[in-house]
Design goal:
about 160 residues, alpha+beta, Glutaredoxin, two-stranded antiparallel sheet
Length: about 160
């Protein structure tokens, strides 16, 4: 695995998605959960997506149940929850692990390329965000508490590159 564009992840509907289809776009990749204190960030993520999608940026949500069992639902429940409560239209993927032996290859790569505080690679909680340049390299990793709207200036900067 050389780049994130070599990675495939299953969509929320279960179909394989080659991340190579996003080559040349700015990506905001987020591990999400439906029953977390940060869950209202879905609204901000959707706002970022709507603001920048026509300029070449996309938000990719990856539900994860590893933190406090805050994403217990099945794919159809997750999708319905996100649509009904937050009007989510950005791509959501099948539930994955972001840490441990079964961590998805995408998050293994993201954690390696953009370690957290003190160089730790582990994702600490839901709604950790990774902003990806058009060439597929990681620009920055953001903490769960960082609100999506706080990333707007960085996204605009990467779109202008």
């Amino acid at each position: 695995m050389n780049t994130l564009y070599d990675i495939t992840a299953d969509s929320l509907a279960g179909a394989p998605v080659n991340l190579g289809q996003y080559k040349g776009q700015v990506l905001l990749i987020v591990n999400t959960a439906s029953k977390c204190g940060f869950t209202p960030q879905y609204q901000g993520l959707e706002a970022i997506y709507q603001r920048f999608k026509d300029q070449g940026a996309v938000v990719l949500g990856f539900p994860c149940n590893q933190f406090g069992a805050q994403e217990p639902g099945q794919a159809d429940e997750i999708g319905a929850f996100c649509q009904k409560n937050y009007g989510v239209t950005f791509p959501l993927f099948a539930k994955i692990d972001v840490n441990g032996n079964n961590a998805h290859p995408l998050f293994i790569k993201l954690k390696k390329d953009a370690p957290g505080i003190l160089g730790t690679e582990a994702i600490k909680w839901n709604f950790t965000k990774f902003l990806i340049r058009k060439d597929g390299s990681v620009y920055k990793r953001y903490a769960p508490a960082t609100k999506p709207e706080e990333l707007a200036a960085d996204i605009a900067k990467l779109l202008a590159e």
